[in-house]
Amino acid sequence: MKKLLLFICLLATFNTISQTEAEDKKAILTVLRMQENAWNQNDLEGFMQGYWKSDSLKFYGSSGITQGWQKTLDNYKKGYPSKEYTGTLSFTIEAVTKIEDNSYYVMGQFHLVRNAGNANGVFMIIFRKIEGKWKIISDLSC
To answer: Which residue from 12, 124, 132 is spatially nearest to 58, judged by alpha carbons?
Structure first.
């Protein structure tokens, strides 16, 4: 009887963990969809709401490392000054993987269709749950 009770407890714990991870992944994908929508409306500030608003945010792209939310936004505004440059963004998500409690990495592709010339690439971003919200704390895009 003790073994059966232990088995039921372990099964319940595993089920709860699986549900939590599924909910986390769904919430992270919701952030990414929000970013696509904001970008496609040429709303860079809205797009940046998916990022951690901190001087500790790190973005690593073709120009090297950018540190800080405001500097990252400034770089986006400089590189994508109009709808001709922002165009239409879509993500292809390849993996959402738990690192530890409240942290996941996401690997995928970005596809940008625009009048200024299409752009495609890959990314790996790290999400952390901060004050109850999923935020990108680090972004490697190339």
So the answer is: 124
Tell me how far apart the alpha carbons of residues 51 and 103 are, in angstroms, rounded to a whole number: 14
* Residue 108 exposure: Cα atoms within 13 Å on the Cβ side: 18
**Residue from 123, 122, 44 nearest 78 by CA:** 44
51-64: per-residue pLDDT in tens? Answer: 999 999 999 998 89
Quick count: other Cβ atoms within 10 Å of Cβ 73? 18
Q: Over the stretch 62-86, which tens digit does the pLDDT of each residue have?
A: 889 999 999 999 999 999 999 999 9
2-141 is classed in which CATH architecture? Roll (3.10)
| Closest C-alpha among 54, 42, 72 to residue 139 | 72
The domain spans of the chain are: 2-141
d(CA 24, CA 42): 27
